[in-house]
Amino acid sequence: MRDLPQATVTRLASYLRVLGVMADDGTLIVSSEELASAAGVGSAMLRKDLSFLGPNGVRGVGYDVTRLRARIESALGLDQGHRVVLVGAGNLGQALARYGGFGRRGFTMVGLFDRDPERIGTDVDGLTVRDVAELESACRELGATIGVVATPDEAAQQVCDRLVGAGVRCILSFASSSVEVPPHVEVGRVDLAVEMQVLSFRSARNAESDHGTAVASDHGTAVASDHGTAVAAVGGARSTSTGLGSTKNGSVIAP
Ligand SMILES: NC(=O)c1ccc[n+]([C@@H]2O[C@H](COP(=O)([O-])OP(=O)(O)OC[C@H]3O[C@@H](n4cnc5c(N)ncnc54)[C@H](O)[C@@H]3O)[C@@H](O)[C@H]2O)c1
Questions:
Q1: Higher pLDDT, 237 or 106
Q2: Ligand 1 binding pocket includes 175 (Cβ within 6 Å)
Q3: What architecture is domain 6-75?
Q4: Residue ranges per structural domain of the chain
Q5: Which ipTM value was assigned to this complex?
Q6: 216 labeled part of a ligand binding site
Q7: What is the four-CA torsion angle of 148, 24, 237, 228, rounded to 10 degrees?
């Protein structure tokens, strides 16, 4: 599979989500402007991202929604779908397991595991929580391709080791500590607190630049600088929120 820039991969995932909504609404063809606007990016960036996939749309006509979805799914390795096991069926794990949206996007939750006898055997949205002691054999039996770790930090490394031992090659960890895996395994880390810290930083930075503009306006460059900065700020906010993926790649879902 062709190597793609990390930020492009994240935006492709976002185009895929938008295309899914459009397909559900019965849209057959979409223009690059419409798709870009729905995904919150500029159309030049969208066209550049899609150019990594080879020729796609028809000039003056647009993109075939079904075909473009299939191309992106294939580029993201999603065309076979993924079978997800989740370890740590506590507050977070159960909330994730109950979320119905993963299935629609190609991720089927196939197994939940915990070590707490009180939780083992309970039902979470149709899946029975299994004893983590069975993890390796169950992962093989279930054909798991992604493991989600929602245990306390201190158990995360051991759980990852066991997932790797069971042949799982993609791990998404919610632990705040980093985990080590062999080179053939991909790890993503999600930390919502880091996301909020990044937002806080951006908000503080934007407030600072607004303040700078106000001062400039006071000195006679009012209209031009007000507009310039307002547009830049809006553009900045938009590109960062779409590129939230790039933030994710950089700091939230750390490799
Ligand atoms: N990254 C984030 O944004 C984010 C957000 C919320 C929570 N978290 C983290 O997610 C983790 C879970 O949080 P929670 O509120 O669901 O906790 P919780 O205590 O409700 O759930 C943890 C579950 O893991 C199980 N567990 C512990 N050790 C295990 C092991 N070795 N094997 C299998 N299961 C094991 C426990 O029995 C429990 O059911 C914590 O580490 C928390 O810090 C991260």
A1: 106
A2: yes
A3: Orthogonal Bundle (1.10)
A4: 6-75, 82-190, 193-252
A5: 0.97
A6: no
A7: 160
Query: Any idea which residue has 């690059």 for tokens?
Result: 32
13: its two tokens: 């995932």
C-alpha distance across the termini of the chain, in Å: 19
Write the pLDDT tens digit of every residue in 138-148.
999 999 999 99
| CB of 112 closer than 6 angstroms to any ligand 1 atom | no
Q: Is the CB of 254 under 6 A from ligand 1?
A: no
Distance 87 CA to ligand 1 centre (A): 8
Confidence of residue 1 (pLDDT cuts 50, 70, 90): low
Instruction: Write the pLDDT tens digit of every residue in 15-64.
Output: 999 999 999 999 999 999 999 999 999 999 999 999 998 877 777 778 99
Classify domain 82-190 by CATH architecture.
3-Layer(aba) Sandwich (3.40)
Q: Is the CB of 150 under 6 A from ligand 1?
A: yes
Burial of 25 (0-12, 13-18, 19+ CB in 10 A): exposed
